[in-house]
Amino acid sequence: MEFQIYGNLGDYLSFNPHPLQFLLINRRKAEIPKRIIMQTSINGYWEDVPREIKEDILERLSLSDRIRMSIVCKYWGAIALQKHIRITSQIPWLTIPHSSNSTELSFYDMSEGKIQKLKLPKRLHGMVCCGSSKGWLFMAKDCPYSLLWHKLANYCHQVIQATIPWLGHVLFQQWRIPESDIFMFNPISGEVHHLPSLFTIPCYQQFLRNKGKSHSVSRFISKIELSSANVSECIVAGAFDDGDLATPIMVAICRPGNNQWSTFTAKSNDKNFELIDFLFNKRTLYMISKVNHIETYILELVGCEVNLKLIPSLHIEAEDVDLNYRLITDEFVLVSNTYSYFYFVESTRGEMLLIKRMYDQLESPDPLVYIKTSSFYIFKMDHNTNQWQRLYNIDDQVLFVSGGGSLSLSATDFEGVEGNCIYFVDDLDYSGEDLCPILSRECGVFYLQDKRVERSFPNTGTNLPLHTRISWFTPVL
Fold it and tell me: Which of 37, 189, 278, 363 is packed most tightly, with the most Cβ within 10 A?
């Protein structure tokens, strides 16, 4: 990521438009070296400024400005990135698709209108981004071997370990059997936390059988959500799809450091169970599904319990949505409102919102698919009646929706940001659509007042990797 270097604090706080130079920084842990504390700065007595004043200055800076400040000198770098100092409200970044052999990640910073690049730790090389939640990215890697080979290798290792323990230990250290690893990664602080292997999720083995060598792990991970940005107390929930239309999406939970995922099974054990979306509110996991009534569960994890509520998605059809056909030419037909996609978002007021996204599709005799977003409909859960109510405006709220992570912000916290609108991206994984190429992925803004769609973001095009997801990411320390 490129940041500007300023000559002194005065130039920095006055936003001098003429920086001395540009540097590429490496993130460091925010620890103040004792030798730095004892030294007097040649540029002044910044270390003598009362701690309260320093923190007040930092709280007024954006995260990007604090990172710029951190590269002025070691002392500033040590205090600028301290986590306990509050960060100003941050407009989300947009993750840009990347190849599996990439050594860095790219983000579109809407507040500055720039592409920011951050290096990946070496242990995450070869992984792809499968979504984000509360300032964390989820990086995953495919198993390089077939399912049969994985079982055979594990069996041989267990036999050797049981008969010749010392040899089994050596083999495990030198030729460790690769797993389908998945990590939580904070690209700002550089923190990495290992999550349980995907092989501990029963449907992953079925996914490997269904997809074979051409599988992509991003097709298996539908979504991952955190209950908190604090790793010490967070719970991780994931939705996983084995690719078989006859079986439902599997939901599993864990905590960072656990050895395996704990899977969820509905009371009815219905094979037609259909998960639409889910989100955390504190330690309660709310799931939207096609059930007849609200169902409650208690899920056991090591050291804690998780409350889970299944909420019915019935009666949320918008009354003014019709399926229309319009002949463009003799061969092309535009079908309006051909299908929909749902997002589950918690508003800035703590309300549970269900957003329905409608698509138009251009049909042709050729194996070509062109889809575009036509409109959005918003529904709010009425907890008194347990019914969804249609909302026609959301006042000053701004919604950011994507399959890899959604959130809401208040427009009053940001200068120049308009409320009552929805920022959206097309984040579907098209890596398996070999016979039906997709023309492009789209992203833009939908304004609820006049139902206008503005595609103000640059199109990501078809030359970018299609096996990684686009999602909204809120950077945190």
Answer: 278
